[in-house]
Design brief:
The protein contains 18 helices and no strands. It has about 450 residues and is mainly alpha-helical. The N terminus and C terminus are likely disordered.
Length: about 450
């Protein structure tokens, strides 16, 4: 990393469209990654169907358009990422990631199926949704750090940024398809069937994990169990000014900005007065932007703080524009811009934190990142929901705009070195050019 927080500039030769395409999707040449990506895509579609159906169920069927209840469901589902942080990060570094994910994915599949059965049978109540959201959140808290850091075992170090970008493409491609399909399913047969479809979709990722070529995995050194090992990740990140700055930016961005279920559901239901199909399409419009952003990220060969600042800035102005849009068409266009910006920022934090962390610390570093990105969102969602209920969803989007611009200001402060301690290099990570340039 340069003194101003960016990566060294270098001239990149012009390449043909075919070469750009091959470079963007180069990780798919790896058989393990290809198998993993196929299973993850199916499971991701199911996950987004459930998220959409769950928000709509709470907002329109179990309450009378209560955005605060949606915010509470988000808090219960994503809060465990923060509360269980020391355990989940250490588990990702200590246990076999593949086996750990087989357990967590199976548990989440069972929970989704059980909630689907309750809903289809007409017995679902709000308190039950709260319980299932909490249980799913606990399982996901152990799954997410292992899943994110598992990418480094599927591909070589030089392809890590590309693989992270393709993972985001898959996740956000599913975000484009899943909500739209969920809207149709909800309108035709009800929310419960979306939960049941999600429960079945977990079989895809379990099958892909089972058939991975274990001998081709790039496994690094595992964490050792001993006194202080659970808190070692905190000390590691706190001692690295670059990682600490990313975490502060991500906290502001995620806590008040990444509240899309509240933003979109309240705008759809109370401003534009659209049904579940319209809500699903608006969520898919956001996903169009995130897919585009993910493909851009996969095609990049470098990333740095300037991408984080740029993404946060565009996100802030995008939320401000969305807040004043007169109809759902222009609102959807603004959501596409927001999607590109949010993905650029999130992918940048993911790649930078993985590439600049020692292999035996990646699980814990990713757990901290995910705890902030997902676990801190529930800290802000009740406030965002209250603002949407009290003053209207347009004002809630205004808070999202302030979050994006605030994160950009923090990134600029770090890049200019204001009060920044000396940078720390990890000797273990100086083995590749890509790694050295990312620090």
């Amino acid at each position: 990393m340069s003194a101003r927080g960016g990566l060294p500039a270098r001239s990149i030769p012009r390449r043909s469209p075919a070469a750009v395409f091959r470079n963007t999707f180069r990780s798919l040449a790896n058989p393990n990654y290809r198998l993993w990506a196929a299973g993850a895509l199916v499971s991701n579609i199911g996950t987004w169907m459930q998220r959409t159906a769950q928000d709509w169920l709470v907002l329109t069927e179990l309450t009378d358009h209560n955005a605060a209840a949606v915010g509470l469901v988000m808090s219960l589902q994503f809060g465990p990422q923060l509360l269980l942080l020391p355990l989940t990060g250490f588990a990702a570094d200590y246990f076999d990631k593949r086996k750990l994910m087989m357990v967590t994915q199976a548990v989440m599949g069972v929970l989704a199926t059980a909630l689907g059965v309750l809903t289809v049978s007409g017995q679902a109540e709000l308190w039950q949704v709260y319980v299932f959201a909490l249980l799913l959140g606990c399982a996901a808290a152990f799954d997410a750090p292992a899943r994110h850091s598992f990418v480094s075992e599927l591909v070589e170090e030089k392809d890590l940024v590309n693989a992270v970008g393709l993972n985001s493409t898959s996740f956000n491609g599913a975000r484009m398809v899943g909500p739209a399909v969920a809207g149709v399913v909800i309108a035709w047969v009800g929310s419960g069937w979306a939960f049941l479809i999600n429960g079945v979709s977990f079989a895809a990722v379990l099958i892909s994990l089972f058939f991975l070529r274990v001998d081709l995995l790039h496994r690094g050194k595992r964490a050792s169990r001993g006194r202080g090992s659970l808190m070692q990740g905190f000390r590691y990140v706190w001692g690295r000014p670059d990682l600490a700055a990313i975490c502060v930016m991500l906290f502001v961005f995620a806590t008040f900005g990444l509240n899309f279920p509240i933003f979109i559901s309240t705008m759809a239901a109370t401003v534009f007065h659209t049904g579940p199909s319209g809500y699903g399409l608006l969520t898919s419009a956001l996903a169009v932007g995130t897919v585009a952003g993910a493909l851009f990220a996969a095609g990049r060969e470098e990333t740095g703080f300037r991408h984080l600042v740029g993404g946060a800035t565009v996100f802030g102005f995008g939320c401000a524009a969305a807040a004043v849009m007169p109809n759902e068409f222009f609102f959807a266009l603004a959501l596409m811009v927001i999607g590109v910006a949010a993905l650029t920022f999130n992918n940048g934090t993911n790649s930078l934190m993985q590439l600049s962390s020692a292999p035996e610390m990646r699980g814990r570093v990713m757990a901290i990142r995910l705890a902030i990105a997902m676990g801190c969102t529930p800290l802000g969602s009740p406030l965002v929901g209250w603002i949407a209920d009290r003053f209207g969803p347009r004002w809630a989007l205004g808070l999202g705009a302030l979050a994006g611009l605030g994160a950009a200001v923090i990134g600029l402060w770090y890049m200019r070195g204001a009060g920044r301690p000396p940078a720390v290099r990890e000797p273990a990570m100086q083995t590749t050019d890509a790694t050295a340039s990312a620090i």
